[in-house]
């Protein structure tokens, strides 16, 4: 009894554990099923392992047999990853199988063959509940107590509830019910973070099958693998995250997360805002950022931008490049900064208009074919791991020249909005220049992408800068352009818009978002809609979105009830005061929920409504819009406020104005005019929205007035009032800081200080300096105190009343009329004690003049302290600013006694520093304060002093300056000492030019003359007058005082018509008082019967004419000229053989003149070859009349009018041509009925352009009563060969480049020529070796194609191929390199075509034997045999009504000898009627031979006939 109790307790214990496990399984299953499938980042492969398990039967205590399975072998252990059909992990199902694995494995394997088509995830879940059901339904018989019975009853109730839940879930186990579209359980949340921090976006996505997740930044797909240093993407189960590291300001954006599966796609948006911590005003995206430490590379990157681009000006159609050199320090291997270009703070994207390049050192952006859209502020931003630096400058784009004076310039910034299936709104901006009259309107043109045909969209011009374009074809892409119109004409078209597709906005949004990762395309899922065939409902929310004088735009929402098919719309209008509704689009309903109505009466009121329609019919009308009055809703902008213009730089002015009160402002245009003129010119060609603008490109010194006008879509405002006139010159500012404060002498109670004047004077003279001092004790410094209350006029100061042996620091401020500058850097701590040194002190007052690319002049003042002996020389040292102290080099070897020196050999664009040391008998003193850095670069616009000698022989030096400012003066110096003695030089200054005139040039004037322009950026120049130079100037002065009349050309002789002789010459310049003497052999001749003279003083041409030359005219002809004190002589000698040759030419010209009095040849008979390879004999005739006879002959035989060659002769005005190769078509003879055409009636084939049959002597004769003339061309021997050589040249030059074509037989290289002549020599070479003809490689001609065929090409056929065409001289070569990619593509195409040809030859096909229709009487036997072909032998099968037939007693199918396939049907019945097919298939293809079998019953046919009767 105790044993049974123990057994019962043990069983109860086991049952209790089993129930707990069951409850645990149920809980885990519920938890698992309540969550959605998750996505793993990796893909795993699962290998199915099938095994047979042994079944054993075991008897229990009550005698029941229980079937158990043997343990599963280790090799058959399964993975618990949930897989989809693509073998990708879509989730984990481990919790489902945490207990009782044996049962689940057994159930799974028992049903393995039944569930092969189901996903493993469905099988796992279904089998889970099968196991639970089986365990719940097991019946165990044993005695229990009442307590146990009650407990088990409660458990059974709980189990019943579980079974009900299981049954409900079972219904959902169907895949169609289980799958559902993705949904966000937790959406990503927007965040605001500080710059430099890391931010993470999280979301939880549910969906079945597993959704694919993709992240986007501003609709651009984020590729985390390509930028691992910036982004990290994680996906664990259902949770997904995007981590953005080291946030920067440019990371401020909208981030989209997209989830996609087979049921659909959803997305969510979160905004990340990155803020920068900075006291005061927050920096903008392009403001410089202080560089910070980069932990990744362990350095702090410092960025320097040099060689910066300046404000640039371009013209429409030109190409403009901007660039800067970027230096990033330190240099880290394989690290490059990010270089970004901006226009008006918007990043530039590379396109066909914008090309960017980063070479590693220089960043450039190239604007191809400039348009006004390219105008704006361009910024280069260099991003490093430590921060970023920027540089900006404005680019102005001027309008291209107009084709017709007075027409407007092109509009700009054409954009497309609100695109739909057949409708788009086009907007643009009005141009800055309207032309000579106001703009009347605009024309909009459209062009379908892929074509070049532009169609005008509007018949009449529109005033608004906004126009709805209708009538687009859905699915096609369009581009648009706009032209402006005024009274003078139409402008050039604007730059075309971006292409826009006419399609539904929802489809466009999906396309714009791009493919959802990891798919490569968009998937659109549709389900059957039960509302197919239903009349659509009425649209809703019909509103008027735009209303102008020209059109009204309606918009509405589609109806809720619209069926499975799409809907279209009809628009109806009703005039106010009537009840009649008129349909607007009667011809065709529109597809888009937008419509533009034109041709409405301005000022009238209308109501509008919309109806939907589909194939089922037209729906009810929508609610009316109410009365809408046609007219402009948008008003013109008001005039901007008074502009205020202020000076900025030498070429720019800042203009500020009051804002215009207007809605939808597009921007402002600024115009200027020079005082005294009435021509207004635009400052900007692209409207700006701010009320401050810097107008660049102005001329220095001009007095300008400015005005502003606002613009919106309605048009231009009235111009603002004119600003006050302002002179274009640099604004005055406070000077820069003085530099180099140093001690030059020290005594017990005072010190002498020196400093260098500031490099920038601020546009005004320095009026003085102020010195501050403070005491220094160790590391403790006192407060600054002023030493002088009155401004100092020199760059040195004696600081008195100081205490001996006390250390002081000094700083200096400069002052001009604008104010006091910032303090200089404090000097070193200087001790006030008496100097005991013997050498000279440091020179002071270092400054530079004449800064050029390779040289500079350094000047200085002697030291305040000379030492024990006077200073006897100086040494100048120079070094590059970037070099260390060891970089100092002496500029000269010997001591320089002058207080100036010109340093040469500098490198352009490099900065240098200088210092000077003074020398006395005791030695060389300390160096001066360092001067610089000085950039070796010639100031733009710098001019040099030049020497001029005027007509009176006065010698002067001239210096010009285009940057004169108010208060600027020219200061002349000799040897860099200001000239005070006016006895040697007289100085005259007029505006921007100064002239120094030598009063009496002599050796006393030798030296260096320099000129400095005050109140500028150091504009200066010098001229060294040497003894040799002075001598040369004195010679030129003498020539000017005693001048000689210069001749442009010496006396020459021309032979004129009728044999007349013309003697002539031309002087460079002369006055009206100039006189000429004509002399022959020292005898003055005058005008008469033999001589005719002419002197044109305006051109300086002197002429003398003689009708003929006689023997007595041999000698010397001379022209003597006298013009005031200037004289000139020119002669021509005609004697001996030269005279006799000239006399013969004169007689010939007279004879020629006589010949030309009648009909004559202007150009004698010659030949030419046209580009079409026609050989023409041509000549040009003159002085012909209608009655003039023109006769052609060949080989002395006249060509009559009825000859065939007569049709080759053509005459156009004075040009005669004979087309040798013209094909003459004989006139067709009338055909006689019943008579066969003879050989003569058949037209001959085209003849060659020229042949040897055309050789001969061709002559042309001209005759009339005034005279005759003849011209001959010998087209034999050398003449014929010359013509053929010219023909060969034209043919050779017409040859096209060699092209390669692959065929199934090999590769063909070919070139096309205009015409081919059989005598033309054409050779082919491979690798410069002549190709021998063979069966495999052949060359030839087909029509006008020259070809080389390479059959079955091999690697040996690779190489450079040359086609040499004889052109009459050396030959023309066409080269094709058949190597590399060209060979690979050609050879690959040959192999493909060859394989395709083989496949086509060997493809399985039915070649015959089968009829199209077989009609057979019921009960008869049908036997059909089809002929089959294919290599290898194809597989044969028969089908009936697309179902395969199997050979049996009824259908006997045979396939014999691999060629004959037959089908036999014994005793056919009507059920055998149908569509049969013989299917043949091999590896090269498949084909079906179809035929129809119709079985009829004669008795039924007779009955049918009787019924009809």
Explain what the structure shows.
With 1509 residues, this protein is mainly beta. The strands form 26 sheets. Strands 49, 50, 51, 53, 54 and 55 form a six-stranded antiparallel beta sheet that branches. It has a five-stranded mixed beta sheet with strand order 6-13-12-8-9, with no helix packed on it. A hairpin with a 5-residue loop joins strand 1 (55-59) and strand 2 (65-69). The chain is extended and about 150 Å long.
Low-confidence stretches: 1-13, 20-125, 278-283, 514-531, 1225-1229
Helix content class:
10-25%
Shape: extended
Q: What is the SS-derived class? A: mainly beta
| Major beta-sheet overview | 6 strands, antiparallel
Distance between the termini: 102 Å
Q: What's this, in brief?
A:
By secondary structure, the chain is mainly beta. 12% of the residues lie in helices and 41% in strands.
């Amino acid at each position: 009894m105790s044993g049974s109790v123990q057994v019962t307790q043990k069983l109860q214990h086991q049952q209790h554990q089993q129930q707990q496990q069951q409850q645990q399984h149920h809980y885990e299953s519920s938890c698992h099923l309540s969550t959605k499938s998750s996505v793993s980042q990796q893909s795993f492969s699962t290998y199915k392992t099938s095994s047979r398990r042994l079944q054993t039967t075991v008897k229990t205590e009550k005698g029941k047999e229980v079937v158990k399975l043997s343990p599963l072998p280790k090799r058959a252990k399964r993975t618990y990853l949930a897989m989809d059909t693509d073998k990708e992990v879509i989730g984990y199902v481990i919790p489902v199988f945490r207990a009782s694995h044996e049962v689940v494995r057994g159930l799974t394997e028992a049903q393995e063959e039944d569930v092969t088509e189901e996903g493993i995830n469905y099988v796992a879940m279904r089998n889970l509940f099968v196991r639970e059901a089986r365990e719940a339904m097991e019946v165990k018989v044993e005695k229990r107590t009442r307590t146990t019975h009650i407990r088990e009853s409660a458990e059974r109730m709980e189990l019943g509830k579980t079974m009900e839940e299981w049954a409900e879930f079972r219904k959902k186990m169907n895949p169609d019910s289980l799958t559902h579209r993705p949904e966000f359980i937790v959406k990503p949340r927007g965040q605001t973070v500080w710059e430099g921090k890391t931010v993470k976006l999280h979301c939880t996505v549910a969906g079945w099958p597993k959704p694919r997740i993709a992240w986007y930044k501003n609709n651009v797909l984020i590729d985390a693998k390509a930028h691992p240093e910036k982004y990290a993407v994680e996906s664990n189960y259902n949770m997904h995250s995007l981590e953005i590291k080291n946030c920067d300001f440019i990371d401020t954006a909208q981030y989209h997360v997209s989830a996609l599966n087979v049921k659909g796609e959803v997305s969510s948006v979160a905004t990340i805002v990155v803020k920068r911590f900075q006291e005061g005003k927050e920096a903008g995206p392009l403001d410089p950022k202080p560089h910070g430490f980069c932990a990744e590379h362990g350095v702090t990157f410092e960025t320097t931008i040099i060689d910066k681009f300046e404000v640039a000006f371009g013209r429409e159609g030109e190409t403009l490049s901007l660039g800067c050199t970027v230096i990033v320090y330190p240099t880290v291997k394989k690290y490059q900064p990010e270089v970004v270009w901006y226009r008006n703070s918007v990043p530039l994207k590379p396109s066909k208009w914008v090309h960017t390049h980063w070479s590693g050192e220089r960043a450039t952006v190239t604007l191809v074919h400039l348009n006004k859209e390219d105008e704006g502020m361009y910024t280069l931003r260099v991003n490093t791991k430590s921060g970023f630096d920027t540089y900006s400058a404005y680019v102005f784009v001027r309008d291209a020249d107009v084709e017709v004076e007075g027409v407007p310039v092109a509009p700009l910034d054409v954009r497309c909005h609100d695109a739909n299936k057949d409708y788009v709104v086009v907007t643009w901006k009005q141009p800055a220049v309207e032309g000579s009259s106001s703009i009347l309107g605009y024309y909009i043109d459209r062009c379908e992408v892929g074509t070049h045909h532009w169609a005008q969209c509007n018949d009449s011009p529109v005033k608004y800068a906004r126009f709805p374009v209708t009538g687009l074809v859905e699915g096609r892409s369009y581009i648009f352009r706009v032209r402006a119109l005024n009274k003078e004409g139409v402008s050039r078209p604007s730059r075309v818009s971006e292409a826009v597709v006419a399609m539904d906005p929802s489809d466009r949004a999906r396309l714009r978002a791009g493919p959802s990762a990891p798919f490569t395309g968009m998937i659109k899922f549709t389900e059957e809609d039960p509302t197919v065939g239903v009349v659509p409902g009425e649209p809703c929310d019909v509103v008027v979105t735009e209303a102008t004088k020209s059109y009204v735009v309606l918009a509405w929402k589609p109806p809720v009830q619209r069926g499975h098919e799409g809907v279209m719309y009809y628009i109806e209008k009703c005039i106010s005061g009537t009840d009649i509704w008129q349909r607007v689009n009667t011809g065709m309903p529109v597809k888009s929920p937008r419509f533009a109505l034109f041709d409405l009466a301005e000022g009238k009121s209308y109501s509008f409504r919309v109806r939907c329609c589909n194939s089922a019919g037209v729906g009810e009308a929508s609610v009316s819009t109410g009365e809408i009055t046609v007219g402009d809703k948008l008003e013109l902008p008001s005039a901007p406020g008074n502009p205020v213009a202020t000076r900025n730089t030498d070429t720019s002015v800042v203009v500020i104005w009051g804002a215009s009160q207007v809605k939808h402002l597009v921007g402002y245009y600024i115009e200027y005019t020079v005082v005294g003129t009435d021509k207004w010119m635009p400052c900007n060609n692209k409207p700006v929205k701010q009320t401050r603008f810097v107008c660049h490109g102005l001329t220095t010194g001009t007095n300008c007035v400015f005005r502003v006008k606002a613009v919106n879509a309605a048009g231009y405002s009235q111009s603002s009032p004119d600003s006050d006139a302002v002179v274009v010159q640099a604004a005055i500012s406070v000077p820069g800081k003085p530099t180099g404060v140093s001690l030059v002498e020290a005594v017990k109670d005072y010190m002498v200080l020196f400093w260098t004047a500031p490099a920038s004077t601020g546009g005004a003279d320095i009026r003085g300096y102020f010195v501050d001092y403070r005491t220094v004790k160790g590391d403790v410094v006192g407060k600054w105190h002023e030493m002088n209350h009155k401004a100092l006029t020199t760059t040195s100061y004696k600081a008195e009343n100081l205490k001996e042996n006390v250390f002081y620091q000094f700083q200096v401020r400069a002052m001009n009329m604008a104010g006091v500058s910032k303090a200089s850097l404090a000097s070193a701590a200087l001790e006030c004690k008496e100097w005991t040194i013997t050498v000279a002190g440091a020179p002071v007052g270092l400054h530079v003049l004449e800064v050029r690319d390779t040289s500079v002049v350094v000047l200085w003042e002697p030291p305040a302290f000379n030492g024990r002996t006077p200073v006897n020389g100086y040494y100048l040292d120079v070094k590059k600013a970037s070099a260390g102290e060891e970089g100092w080099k002496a500029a000269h070897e010997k001591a320089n006694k002058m207080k100036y020196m010109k340093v040469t050999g500098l490198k352009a664009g490099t900065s240098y520093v200088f210092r000077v040391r003074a020398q006395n008998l005791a030695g060389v003193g300390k160096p001066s304060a360092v001067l610089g850095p000085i950039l070796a670069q010639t100031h733009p616009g710098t001019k040099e002093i030049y020497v001029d000698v005027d007509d009176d022989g006065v010698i002067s030096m001239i210096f010009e300056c285009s940057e004169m400012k108010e208060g600027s003066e020219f200061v002349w110096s000799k040897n860099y000492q200001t000239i005070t003695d006016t006895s040697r030089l007289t100085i005259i200054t007029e505006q921007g030019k100064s002239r120094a005139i030598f009063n009496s040039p002599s050796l006393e004037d030798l030296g260096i003359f320099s000129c400095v322009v005050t109140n500028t950026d150091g504009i200066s120049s010098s001229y060294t007058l040497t003894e040799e130079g002075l001598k040369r100037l004195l010679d030129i002065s003498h020539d000017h005082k005693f001048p000689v009349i210069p001749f442009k050309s010496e006396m020459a002789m021309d032979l004129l018509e009728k044999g007349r002789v013309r003697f002539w010459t031309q002087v460079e310049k002369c006055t009206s008082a100039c006189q000429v003497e004509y002399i022959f052999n020292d005898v003055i001749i005058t005008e008469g019967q033999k001589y005719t003279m002419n002197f044109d003083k305006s051109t300086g041409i002197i002429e003398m004419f003689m009708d003929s030359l006689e023997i007595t005219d041999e000698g010397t002809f001379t022209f003597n000229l006298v013009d005031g004190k200037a004289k000139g002589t020119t002669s021509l000698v005609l004697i001996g053989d030269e005279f006799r040759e000239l006399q013969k030419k004169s007689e010939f010209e007279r004879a020629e003149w006589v010949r030309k009095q009648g009909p004559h040849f202007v150009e004698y008979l010659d030949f030419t070859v046209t580009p079409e390879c026609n050989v023409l004999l041509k000549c040009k005739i003159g002085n012909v009349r209608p009655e003039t006879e023109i006769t052609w002959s060949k080989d002395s035989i006249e060509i009559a009018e009825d000859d065939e060659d007569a049709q080759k002769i053509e005459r156009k005005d004075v040009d005669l041509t004979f087309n040798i190769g013209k094909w003459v078509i004989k006139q067709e003879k009338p055909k006689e009925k019943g008579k066969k055409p003879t050989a003569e009636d058949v037209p001959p084939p085209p003849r060659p352009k020229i042949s040897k049959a055309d050789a001969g002597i061709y002559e042309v004769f001209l005759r009339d009563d005034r005279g005759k003339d003849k011209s001959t061309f010998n087209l034999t021997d050398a003449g014929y060969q010359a013509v053929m050589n010219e023909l060969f040249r034209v043919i050779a030059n017409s040859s096209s480049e060699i092209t390669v074509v692959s065929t199934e037989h090999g590769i063909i290289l070919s070139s096309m020529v205009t015409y081919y002549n059989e005598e033309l020599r054409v050779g082919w070479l491979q690798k410069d070796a002549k190709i021998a003809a063979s069966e495999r490689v052949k060359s030839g001609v087909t029509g006008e194609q020259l070809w080389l065929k390479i059959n079955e090409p091999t690697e040996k056929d690779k190489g450079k191929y040359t086609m040499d065409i004889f052109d009459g001289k050396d030959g023309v070569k066409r080269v094709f390199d058949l190597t590399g990619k060209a060979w690979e593509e050609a050879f690959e195409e040959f192999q493909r075509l060859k394989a395709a040809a083989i496949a086509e030859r060997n493809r399985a096909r039915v070649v015959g034997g089968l009829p199209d229709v077989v009609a057979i009487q019921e009960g008869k036997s049908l036997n059909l045999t089809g002929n089959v072909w294919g290599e290898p032998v194809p597989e044969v099968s028969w089908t009936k009504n697309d179902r395969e037939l199997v050979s049996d007693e009824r259908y006997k199918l045979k396939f014999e000898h691999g060629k004959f396939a037959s089908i036999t049907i014994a005793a056919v019945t009507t059920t055998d009627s149908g569509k049969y097919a013989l299917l043949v298939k091999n590896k090269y293809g498949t084909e079906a031979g179809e035929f129809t079998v119709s079985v009829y019953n004669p008795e039924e046919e007779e009955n049918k006939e009787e019924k009809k009767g």
